[in-house]
Amino acid sequence: MNEAEFELLAIRSLRELEPDCLTVIHMEMNAQGKTIPGSLDGFCRVPCINPPRFVLIAATTTKLSKLKGKWLSSGIIEKPTATSSRVKPAKRKSDHSAPTDEGDQPKAAKQAAPLCSKYPTASFVLYLATNRNLSLGLESVARSAGDLEGLEVRFLEQSRCVTFWTQNQLVNGSDRTILASKQIRCHCP
Question: Do β-strands 25-26 and 42-45 pair in parallel, antiparallel, or remain unpaired?
Fold first, then answer.
């Protein structure tokens, strides 16, 4: 399953699994079904909730070893430090830290900031969707980072995805290919 297919199924799954996600707008995918690099993959204001609640979604197929960076990177690579007097730090062309891709959680915090100004009592939920099984340590770090930014972080991970997709016949259980003709039913409150 490629990145675009996973993103599409993750958004569709969250719409069905999570009442707050029923009205999520799927962003960052073009008419050809290809993902467009950008801020986040889904967004909505949850209807009929006061004070307002906003949902943000970031879906990824990034490998587990790079997932923490994908979610939490500040966008700046820290300068390396020598761990031993025998190890010299690598030479750099400049003394400044190099920019890198900003993580999904900092992107969500930036997107939430203007809404926070307009709706000071609003709450923000960030769903991090991945096709990987997560460790409790990674979940804890991501939740803590979200708390610092005023984001409640929730997860849609591999085991929950596979169970939902298989039960709803959205993917072939043996090879995880998408069964495109199957439509998810929507339950309206």
Answer: antiparallel
pTM listed for this prediction: 0.78
* DSSP conformation letters of 50-112: SS-EEEEEEEE---HHHHHHHHH--SBPPPP--SSTTPPPPP-SSSSPPB-PPPHHHHHHHHH
Instruction: Tell me how far apart the alpha carbons of residues 57 and 41 are, in angstroms, rounded to a whole number.
Output: 6
Tokens in use for 31?
């008419």
Strand-pairing partners, residue 59, are: 129
Closest of 7, 6, 12 to residue 182, by C-alpha: 12
User: What does the pLDDT profile of the chain (189 residues) look like in tens digits?
Assistant: 788 888 888 998 999 999 999 999 998 777 777 777 777 999 999 999 999 999 999 999 999 999 999 999 886 555 444 444 444 444 444 444 444 588 999 999 999 999 999 999 999 999 999 999 999 999 999 999 999 999 999 999 988 888 888 887 766 555 455 444 344 333 333
Domains of the chain: 3-75+97-167 (3.40.91)
Residue whose C-alpha is closest to residue 76's, from 104, 95, 99: 99
